[in-house]
Design brief:
By secondary structure, the chain is mainly beta. A hairpin with a 5-residue loop joins β33 and β34 (409-413). The two termini are 24 Å apart.
């Protein structure tokens, strides 16, 4: 397997500013086979070819589209007879590979293809049972983690992909009484936050994979359940020696889930939507707050029908805030923003429920979500409404949606398979222009002044006063050093294994700018008497340096950086 090391074509001073606008539906459409709830469209940034859009469909196909024109580049497989798909898309920038799962003849087929404009299948493997959610990929790209089920038997399998692109099973684990939920992954956590052992605890920063039991077909109530974790041991020789699954909890008050967990803050915090329309949180408020203990925080919402209905959308969070903001749907028609302690910040009641993960803008300023009937919404993370009741698709949207790398566009697939793009932000650059073949454009710090926007009676945010939130450690998944990754340039291809891209450490120097969001009743927005959207009343949120690949490189930093590049080349 070839692995890619991103490199710098130009070292040019850049600054960027993002202005959030009333959404504009672009005059172009793409087409895929009909998607289901578990499918998604996903933008990936290939080290070879820049941004590409991939969408999975319920008939087992994955479609590659040009993210600008939405033209179909290829579909796989061409003949999708007798197969189905209930997964999204996983991507490894290390190997430039996309992975998704299908079900065929009661087997879970895991397919890997090149993330490129030309169709190239890299490998496939079939496992017993039906895939449970989207497989996840290790930070190195060398291992793929899959949960799959046969009846009430849950299975967890680790696939190893060698340098020649050959794939085989390295390790597997079974629960013969309860099926498994989709897995979640956090790359290189501070440590395994589930106690001290040879495979977890304070000394282990290997990728952590977490999953739980899911409801079995026609289950009444919530039966016995557990949650699980896996990490490679600190000293791992590439064999099965020392590999095991840790049972985090066997619950006295059982819960199950159909979505992956969301880990944040260096892998120390975990949030999970579960049965009975409940959100669980391991908020890491002290050293005893381990994943092996009962969730210290929980938030119950209005229940669905039947009452045990689980939340069906994965939790979304901000990435760069020291105190992350948590965004979740419920089993009914509400959408909530909460503090990391699960105190309510604001919430919105919609015409229909949200069934896919919300999208948070790259600068952690705006959250986007869409309900089942196809109405889209945008709020600042503090709770000020930017726009809402926007018709994304009149036939509804249940598949996962995505945004461009710079946050300027959103992409949706309707229930009939029509792919559309909406421009939601202007990203402008200043100073010296950068060639299109150089650094990709992402966001510099921006803030949004609350603006008078139409707000309907049914979706005005509820703004209670949460308790003061104490600062905690920075989310290490949103680096203060910036990884400069090219958008379209061909990378250097090397034969030796590389587990991480070359890092450019660029100090954050530019102060935030303040930008107003345009107002007015445009693009199918609901008319109402304008009122001032009030931001949430809460303790100030400390902003960490924004996750950005567009920043100003000071002269001294540039000199050191060039020396670093020269030393790496030599």
């Amino acid at each position: 397997m070839i692995r890619f090391v991103p490199y710098l074509l130009a070292l040019t001073s850049i600054s960027a500013q993002t202005t959030y606008i009333n959404p504009v539906k672009e005059d172009k459409s793409g087409y895929i086979a009909v998607p289901g709830k578990e499918n998604e469209c996903k933008i990936i940034s290939s080290p070879l070819e820049g941004q590409l859009l991939f969408c999975t469909s319920s008939n087992g196909q994955i479609t590659a589209l040009d993210h600008v024109t939405l033209e179909t580049l290829w579909k796989f497989p061409e003949n999708s007879q007798d197969i189905s798909c209930e997964t999204g898309v996983a991507f490894s920038p290390e190997t430039n590979t996309i992975i998704y799962g299908i079900t065929k003849d009661d087997e879970c087929g895991v397919h890997a293809l090149s993330a490129s404009r030309e169709k190239k299948e890299e490998w496939e493997i079939f496992l017993d049972g039906k895939c449970s959610g989207t497989p996840v990929i290790s930070s190195s790209g060398e291992y793929v983690f899959v949960t799959h089920n046969t009846g009430r038997t849950g299975m967890f399998t680790i696939l190893k992909v060698d340098v020649d692109g050959q794939v085989d099973t390295l390790f597997d684990y079974e629960d013969d009484e309860e099926p498994f939920s989709p897995p979640g992954i956090y790359h290189n956590p501070d440590f395994g936050n589930y106690g001290n052992s040879t495979i977890g605890g304070l000394s282990n920063s290997n990728d952590i994979i977490i999953w739980a039991n899911r409801p079995y077909e026609k289950e009444e109530g919530v039966g016995a359940a557990a949650s699980y974790a896996f990490q490679f041991p600190v000293v791992f020789d590439g064999t099965t020696i020392g590999l095991s699954v840790t049972v985090l909890q066997r619950m006295n008050d059982p819960w199950k889930t159909i979505v992956p967990p969301t880990l944040t803050s260096g892998g120390m915090r975990l949030y999970w939507g579960v049965t009975k329309s409940k959100l669980l949180g391991w908020s890491q408020e002290d050293d005893r707050d381990r994943f092996t203990r009962k969730a210290p925080k929980s938030k119950g919402f209005d229940r669905g029908n039947p009452p045990n209905t689980p939340i069906s959308a994965k939790v979304a969070t901000t990435k760069s805030l020291e105190e992350p903001i948590i965004f979740t749907a419920t089993a009914t028609n509400q959408f909530h923003a909460l503090s990391y302690k699960l105190d309510t910040l604001w919430n919105v009641t919609l015409a229909k429920g949200v069934v896919s993960e919300a999208q948070v803008s790259p600068d952690d300023k705006v959250v986007y979500f869409v309900d089942e009937v196809g109405s889209g919404y945008a709020y600042t993370v503090e709770g000020a409404k930017l726009w809402g009741e926007l018709e994304i698709a009149n036939e509804g949207v249940i598949a996962g949606y995505t945004q461009s790398v710079d946050g300027s566009h959103l992409y949706f697939a309707s229930n009939s398979g029509i792919v559309s793009s909406f421009k939601v932000a202007e990203v402008s650059t200043a100073d010296t222009p950068v060639p299109s073949s150089a650094l990709p454009m992402t966001l510099a710090p921006t803030t949004i002044a609350p603006t008078a926007m139409p707000v309907s009676d049914t979706d005005s945010p509820v703004l209670p006063n949460p308790d003061t939130i104490s600062p905690v450690s920075r989310d290490t998944d949103a680096p203060a050093p910036v990884a400069v990754v090219p958008d379209t340039s061909a990378p250097i291809v090397i034969d030796t294994f590389t587990s991480a891209p070359i890092m450019a450490f660029i100090p954050y120097t530019n102060p935030p700018t303040y930008t107003n969001v345009p107002t007015g009743d445009e693009n199918n927005m609901t008319s109402a008497a304008p009122v001032t959207a009030v931001p949430v009343t809460a303790a100030p949120v400390t902003m960490a340096p924004i996750e950005s690949k567009a920043a100003t490189i000071p002269t001294t930093g540039l000199t050191l950086f060039m020396l670093m590049i020269i030393s790496l080349v030599m």
